[in-house]
Design a protein that fits this description.
Layout: H1 3-7, H2 10-23, H3 29-43, H4 53-64, H5 76-95, H6 120-128, H7 134-144, H8 148-152, E1 159-161, E2 167-172, E3 183-186, H9 189-200, E4 203-205, E5 211-213, E6 219-220, E7 223-224, H10 229-238, H11 248-259, H12 264-271, H13 276-282, H14 287-303, H15 312-319
Antiparallel strand pairs: 1-2, 2-3, 4-5, 6-7
């Protein structure tokens, strides 16, 4: 271990991780900075080589007994996100040659994966209680499986039109994609109609009374829609599906693609899932799906041609 490695402070490692996120245009930079705060409070001034696996286990225990500003305990899921960031910082330091090794950082086992989704009739009830353009944001998410923040960043420069002026493609820019990869979504059927409606609604009146055109697909008086949690919660409650998250529309889209027989490879290109494991988590199967599958299986068996198989002893007697 060289002198530079011995002197390296954890805060320097965390700063390097923030720089790496910024240089790579990661949209989760602000989230990362918030997750690193308790890590900095606990270890920031310490030498990196002194942050051992044993101390990290003590950190986990201490965090779970802390109270948030809302007087609720910190959850294991929250601690896991902090530990994941710390682990990335150590790995980056090793990659950059600033450390020769990283401590073992074990995350809590999480058993809280959501399996929320919404059926078409319930979705329509929710949309009926949403004001424009939030209802259109929800419908875009329902049809595409895209994340809320990805949808809200869309600008008219992202929409490709054919020679007749019809919208045929929308492109998610790299900087707006959670995975850091651009994505293309063909505009067909309801999606094409939705984008055309947004095109017709791009005009707005400025505070000075002038007419202007919004650069965003989903806007309120020219300003990009940013947050609508309260309106969403109220609409879900009024529709009889309280607790439904906007992100559940993403799970619903995956479920609908599966039920439509779309291959996983194609579905992942549409929704933007990067790994098979995450996609499979979103592929929700409920009791109704299982019942329908069994009905189809039994119907297939019943429709199959009947083949008479003679018992071996009867066949032997026939030959004699």
């Amino acid at each position: 271990m060289g002198p530079a490695e011995e002197r390296l402070r954890l805060n320097e490692m965390l700063d390097a991780l923030v720089t790496d996120y910024r240089n790579n245009g990661r949209r989760s930079l602000s989230t990362l900075i918030g997750r690193l705060k308790p890590v900095r409070d606990a270890f920031g001034l310490d030498r990196a080589v002194d942050v051992s696996a044993a101390r990290i286990e003590q950190y986990k225990d201490a965090r779970l007994t802390e109270k948030t500003r809302r007087a609720s305990l910190v959850t294991s899921a929250t601690v896991n996100r902090e530990l994941a960031a710390l682990r990335k910082a150590f790995r980056l330091a090793v990659e950059q040659g600033r450390l020769s090794f990283a401590p073992v950082i074990r995350l809590f086992t999480e058993q809280n994966a959501r399996e929320g989704f919404v059926e078409p009739d319930a979705f329509e009830r929710v949309v009926a209680h949403l004001p424009n353009p939030i209802d259109e944001v929800a419908r875009f998410g329902w049809l595409s499986g895209w994340r809320k923040n990805e949808i809200l960043t869309l600008e008219w420069s992202d929409v490709t039109r054919d020679k007749n002026g019809e919208p045929i493609l929308v492109t998610l820019r790299r900087v707006a994609s959670k995975t850091g990869e651009p994505r293309e979504l063909p505009l067909v059927g309801q999606l094409a109609d939705l984008v055309e409606r947004r095109w017709q609604g791009r005009q707005y009146t400025t505070p000075t009374g002038e007419t202007a055109l919004s650069r965003y697909l989903f806007h309120t008086r020219g300003h990009r829609v940013v947050d609508f949690r309260k309106r969403w919660q109220a609409a879900c409650a009024a529709a009889g599906v309280p607790g439904l998250l906007f992100h559940d529309l993403r799970r619903s889209a995956v479920r609908q693609l599966e039920k439509a027989g779309v291959s996983q490879a194609v579905a992942m290109k549409i929704t933007g899932h990067k790994t098979d494991s995450v996609y499979r988590r979103y592929r929700i199967v409920d009791d109704a799906d299982r019942r329908e599958a069994l009905r189809k299986m039994q119907a297939t068996i019943k429709a199959a041609p009947m083949v008479t198989v003679a018992r071996l002893d009867e066949a032997r007697e026939a030959r004699q």
